[in-house]
Amino acid sequence: MPFSLNGLSKWIPICDLSLQIVYQDEIKRKVEKKFNEIGDRVEKGELEVEEGYALFKEFEDQMVLECAKLMEAEDEASQFDKDVMPDNKKDLDDPPGEGPILRWQTRVVFAPGGDAWHPKNRKVKLAVTVKELGLSKHQFLRLRELVGKRYNPGKDELTITSERFEHREENRKDCLRTLFSLIEEAGKARQLVEDARTSAVKERLKANPKFMERLQAKKQVRIKFANCMIRTMPFRLLS
């Protein structure tokens, strides 16, 4: 039903600018529906134009009040959000960046006479939570097989130590190389599982005599077909 009804349009504006701002989508639909209902009744002669305008104006005022309540509620909610103080506290134990958190442990032993060098100073220990490595179930099991006692199931922690090199920094790099190689080797677990499944299926099929008979029959057919093609090949070349 269009808004420009005969006779009624001179009494009812299509939409006031303030209402365009205030009305929400739901309220707009209510107003349009009510306007069309009143317009239909006016066209059918059930209501006079003045009566239709009065009914619509009353309904319109109700919608404006409803909009005002909604906006007031939104203002209170936004004011509440502003009053809430943001939590600027940062966990200093959680370093920035992505990926697993590597925890390093070293020791400092001062030798007698003030000498800073000591053989135990070069030892480096690396600890990492295995869950943070993002491994699959098979990769996790493979990693546990590789590391053995270096994995602590209670803490879900993998520990790697190194003191091969004289300098501590080289041993730190050695721990990282070991960790990366373990992750790479554990990543091959999926292929190992697939190979094991394939091997198990082959063994079950080999143990099935009916399947092996059909397989041998197919091989014989292929051999006969290949021999036939070889015998007829010279004639095809001559033709």
From TrEMBL:
Pfam families named in the record: MRP-S28 (PF10213)
PANTHER family membership: MITOCHONDRIAL 28S RIBOSOMAL PROTEIN S28 (PTHR13490), SMALL RIBOSOMAL SUBUNIT PROTEIN MS35 (PTHR13490:SF0)
InterPro entries per record: Ribosomal_mS35_mit, Ribosomal_mS35_mt
Organism, scientific name: Sesamum calycinum
Sample GO molecular function, one term: structural constituent of ribosome
Protein name in UniProt: Small ribosomal subunit protein mS35 mitochondrial conserved domain-containing protein
Small ribosomal subunit protein mS35 mitochondrial conserved domain boundaries: 116-196
Domain of life: Eukaryota
A single GO BP: mitochondrial translation
Gene Ontology annotations for the cellular component aspect, listed alphabetically: mitochondrial small ribosomal subunit
